[in-house]
Amino acid sequence: MKIKCLFVSILICLSSVIYLWVASLGFEAQNIRLEDYVSREDLVLWRGRDFKIDSRTGKTPVFAIQFWGMDKKLGVYRMSRNYDDLLEEINKGDLLKVYYKSNDNRTENVNIDLIQIEKDG
């Protein structure tokens, strides 16, 4: 019985150490440096709900914005699919600064690698 308790205790401690190590790796990977992303400051041509269409996930509802002179829209995906706050805050003609990861994926119509949106500082 003592050996079983000892084994279970060691297993719990080892599992805890592995969990904390993996969590720390995730936290370090979450450190976003805006210098590593493309920034653009421009007027909003269009904003609203749209569907991100790609070959992997099909149609996914997103909030999207399009700037003057950009072919592809930039978007935000939320699991809740609630974009009301963005629809209230961002309007056509607003001056926004965005940070995003540029990609050349031609099968998608909305780039959801949008990291940050700044409006009025």
Write a structural description.
The protein is α+β, with helices and mostly antiparallel strands and 121 residues long. It contains 2 helices and 6 strands. It has helices at 2-29, 84-89, and strands at residues 38-54, 58-67, 73-76, 95-100, 110-111, 114-119. A hairpin with a 5-residue loop joins strand 2 and strand 3 (73-76). The protein starts with a helix and ends with a strand.
Q: Point out poorly predicted stretches.
A: none
Topology as a string of helices (H) and strands (E): HEEEHEEE
Q: Tell me, briefly, the overall form.
A: elongated
Mean pLDDT: 88
Beta-strand content bin: 35-45%
Strand order of the largest sheet: 5-3-2-1-4-6
Evaluate the radius of gyration. Answer: 21 Å
| Biggest sheet character | 6 strands, mixed
Q: What percent of residues adopt helix (DSSP H or I)? A: 25-40%
Ends apart, CA distance between termini: 64 Å
Helix-strand makeup class: alpha+beta
Record field, number of beta strands: 6
Number of helices: 2
Helix-strand blueprint:
Blueprint: H1 2-29, E1 38-54, E2 58-67, E3 73-76, H2 84-89, E4 95-100, E5 110-111, E6 114-119
Parallel strand pairs: 3-5
Antiparallel strand pairs: 1-2, 1-4, 2-3, 4-6
Describe this structure in a few short sentences.
The protein is an alpha+beta fold and about 120 residues long. It is built from 2 helices and 6 strands; from the N terminus they run H-E-E-E-H-E-E-E.
